[in-house]
Hints:
Layout: E1 9-13, H1 18-29, E2 33-38, H2 41-52, E3 63-67, H3 73-82, E4 88-91, H4 106-134, E5 137-142, H5 155-171, H6 175-178, E6 182-189, H7 195-208, H8 212-221, H9 231-241, E7 253-256
Helix pairs in contact: 1-9, 4-5
Amino acid sequence: MDLGIAGKWALVCGASKGLGWGCAQALAREGAHVLLVARGEQALHDAAARLQADPALPAGTQVQAVAADITTEAGRAAVFAVRAAFDIVVTNAGGPPPGDFRDWDREAWIKAVDANMLTPIALIQSQVDGMAARGFGRIVNITSSAVKAPIDILGLSNGARSGLTGFVAGVARTKKLAAANVTINNLLPGAFDTDRLRGTMEGAVKKTGQSMEQVRAARMAGIPGGRFGTPEEFGATCAFLCSQHASYITGQNVLIDGGAYPGTY
């Protein structure tokens, strides 16, 4: 299937690894020009070089990279100094740390909300009017399955990402955007084989005294699919939501978790 996004410009945040990388790779393989953003300069440039060398990229596909913290005004300014307008935006920031809500002060909450709610909103705000004027726009926010099924130790993430979800539910349905072929959707990952998941399991190893193999097996046992997801398949779903074929999908929360969420709705 031709997704119809060849030649479009995409901004992908947190793109040096994990789910952001999976999205950047999938979009570039469809011929979309991609600007990758991440904080770690070396990892980012390694990722950009790897993507440029991908034999599956159509001829002429451009790959750029900006090492910046997208959660800051200075970081966003650095990105927009390279390119001001995008047809596709994939927002993505590392999740806040787990813990007991009793230990979180105002600064911890502000940091979580700034990264996982206000930054995506700022990126949406900067791009949607231009997208509407051009008659095409796709924004995909990488959030979390915890938006559907909150996890007690991830209160910072639950709160901040739920705030973003509520905001998107309203703005995505405004006629000025939806009728102009501008869609905004959220992708909710469950357990994917990324550094963040491995870090979480390492914490469980230290806490329980179990081996990594035991912790890994126990985590997968709770997933009907019997495995962790891959960044590549996550990226494929993202690319579809960014495609010409997804113009009738907006304001949705797309859960990708191998069947782990037990609810009907």
